[in-house]
Sequence to fold (570 residues):
Amino acid sequence: MAVNMESSLGPLRLRHPIINASGTFDVLAADRVLAADLFADFPFAAYVPKTVTLKPREGNPPPRLYETAAGLLNSIGLANKGIDAFIADDLPRLGRLPVPLIASIAAEETDGYGRCAGMLDGHDEVAALELNVSCPNVELDGKALGCDPDLTARATAQARAATGKFLIVKLTPNVTDILALAHAAVEAGADCLSVINTVHGMVLDPWTLKPALGHVTGGLSGPAIKPVALRAVYLISRELDVPVIGMGGATSANDVLEFMAAGATAVAVGTASFRDPLLAAPLVQELGRQMELRGIASPEQLVGRSH
Amino acid sequence: METVPAQADLYQCSVVESRTVGAYHLIAFVAGEIAAVARPGQFVMIRQSGPALDPLLPRPMGIHDVEADLVKVLIEPVGKGTVVLTDARVGDRFSVLGPLGNGFDLSGEGPAVIVGGGVGVAPLALLAGTLAGRGRDIRCLLGFKTRVQAVAAGLFRDVDVDICTEDGTMGRKGVVSDLLAECLIGLGPAAAGVELFTCGPGAMMRAVVDAARECGADAQVSVATHMACGVGACQGCVVRVDGEYRCACNQGPVFRAGELEWR
Fold:
């Protein structure tokens, strides 16, 4: 049986259903280090760069990383060069990628989402926008606006008004009812949901018994959070009629199968790229093999199979 | 630091040597492509091959030495990841990404003083051998807490090393910054023309940098930080350089002493 891996995510045509999670694969940095020709042979089906904000952010004080049991706790703090430098320096180069570009944006104030979306709207290199609503928000005393359905809806509506591009909202799991956030985003104009961002967590240094991260708390990613992500994908995709990008610990082909069977149209690989920055190509191959073994001829036959 | 060409790749490598060296563990694996191009001060990201998810991520290890098609690393078992690596047996497979980082700038020609502390001596062995091979006048000053660590000084081939231990169980009793101070005083005005290379605990490197500044010598510092990706993606391994955060992985791990800010 021949497996056709081609997928669609709204208007985006994908060669296969595996993309990268924002902040975990930097093609411009990797291209300077790795021998592989990533621009000619880009392994993911779409590229999501690191989140950019209106103004540059230097990020949180180190240490920013601590490995946990099958997971990684990070507090990078959305370090980025700002959207102006992103547009001037990175976009022209990212436009050469042979896959759709999904720009990830965040803002410290709700209005900033509209401004960022508007600044990218005229750039043809950008196929879609992903709103990272886990940025510390000034209106919420530094809490992520993604924890609040009203502010999430406002940020989404602002971006919706500023762009006609395919609009993705990346939900945080650090809420009581993630379905309420999903509804709020979709009702405000989101075309698609990324599910999930990192899970709040903390690590103490076992010797000093003090917080191991400079920022004290951080976001947990990696295989440890996969069941949390899978549940959210399942609940949201059963109830809402927008495509879902599943993410949170996907590392193996079987993980990708599970996310898609839970309802994800595409799956983003994040922390697993830190294990192996070149894992996507063999992962796609293995996914095809595993689909064939199960008699699944295409991604469409797989999406939501568990429902 | 020198920029290196984009040449890192992921290799599955067989372990051919795995042995205790005092408090540390030496592992040699077959990685001809890395051995052929590795520069002193570069590092590799290594983990045991296979699907096990704990430890999850590879660990950055300075390239301690290369010999024909072998790459050697020296590991101090301090946490989950490093302990698992030191359990490796001959024939085990490592997943190895490298070579990574910019390494030391070797363009200087004057006398060099290499100052290492603890497991930080690991990448300095390849540096010392390379500089000696180029005919540069070098001195190696290595400091350890105690004898069980100091046996690692035996890994420095073909170069003379001065050793000190804090408890006096091997070499001189004291800390390596004392050895450095004596060395620089002995050189008199010529000390300003010396180039220092250092890797080790933060407090030790800071003392080295202070000593270099006092006598007007240049110093290159190799930092060790927690890393996730090793290739500039995660932004997790930052140090403060010239007033901003820079990744140790792809903008270091070697920095000029003058540009590095100490916390």
Q: What stands out?
A: Residues 202-215 of chain B form the longest helix (14 residues).
